[in-house]
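Quick one:
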Amino acid sequence: MFAAGANVNLRFYDFFAGAGLATLGLSRSWRCVWANDIAAPKAAVYTANFGNGHFTLGDVAQVAAHQLPIPAEMAWASFPCQDLSLAGWRKGLAAERSGVFWAFWRIMHELAVRRERPPIIVIENVAGLLYGDSFTGLCEAIASLGMQFGALVIDAKRFVPQSRPRVFLVAVDDMINCSALSADQPVLTWTPGALVRAQEQLPGDVKARWRWWRLPVPKPAHGSVGDVIEDAPALVDWHTHQQTQALLDMMSDTNRKKIEKALRLRKRQVGFLYKRIRQGRQRAEVRFDGISGCLRTPQGGSSRQTVVIIENGKIRTRLLSPREAARLMGVPDSFKLPAKYNDAYKAMGDGVVVPVVSWLSEYLLRPIAELLTCPRESEGADAVPTGDLSCYRASTERRATQWLTSQRQKSAPLQQS
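Output:
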């Protein structure tokens, strides 16, 4: 059973918790006091590893703010990307929405009205969030809660042998002075062009709340992909010669040459193969660069990764095992996985990379939490110690209501048109 580190007094909510990889990554400094997911198989993984004392299974749209334990310093949300249009935001700011993000936002707004909104909110999603008007709608929604915010794009390949870029939007109560943790210019490592363009498109009043977070860049330490591969994997079988040959026959000349090059090398080569549609035809593509592609679940037609091992002139292929998928997510072998292949693979493919979350926590989230002291009423007043969130609660309702009113006034012409 996994538990938070010793003397951990920072509390958080884990929305859309899945198998609990965010909870695992935060466990050194944070204690999860409430977690939720709608998928029973993922809930089973979470409770098997963290217990069921703080887990709620069900639709987040059915959760009311008063059901959450108070207080908490942070709310974490790794929500599915859906229903985040700018037009929808301005036309129905206070209306109930079908998208799961809006259910989360509604809870945060209710907490703000109750003066109980956590002073830190973290939202994690795929890099595609940065394209179109979804990101603007998201930032407006967070701004309406009385928060300053910024985003980073972190690729997991800096921590594990898997390429997995994800957007992490970190929002902090307006009353917290975060100048020591932000910069005038973005840190290039965490700021691809798509993020810069998305930030530039924000409305002026929203952009005024933007912060370029300063997160140090780790030294490359993702290890060898060969260390991930099991000699005797569970729940998967090696392909037959015919199945392997069928995959090779699906390759283009470019990918066949990669296989031929690996065959000429004397040492063991570990690669990953993916099925892709190219020019209307299914192709098999392979890589031997020591990095796996982004783990994906089979939903939506995505191809599961195939392991390719070339050694002593022989080519062997099979599906990636659940334990190997877990290792690519930075999950320790002591973590309990489901007995069924699809349940285990999906639990990992839908998760966040544990060392990425730990790095973000160590160098940004925990330092922000250490700033949770109320502003001084006068030069001689003492700050309220960390853990007393009363000053933030006293102002969140007013600020959230003011912003909500202004956005309704802004959206009135749109609603009438």
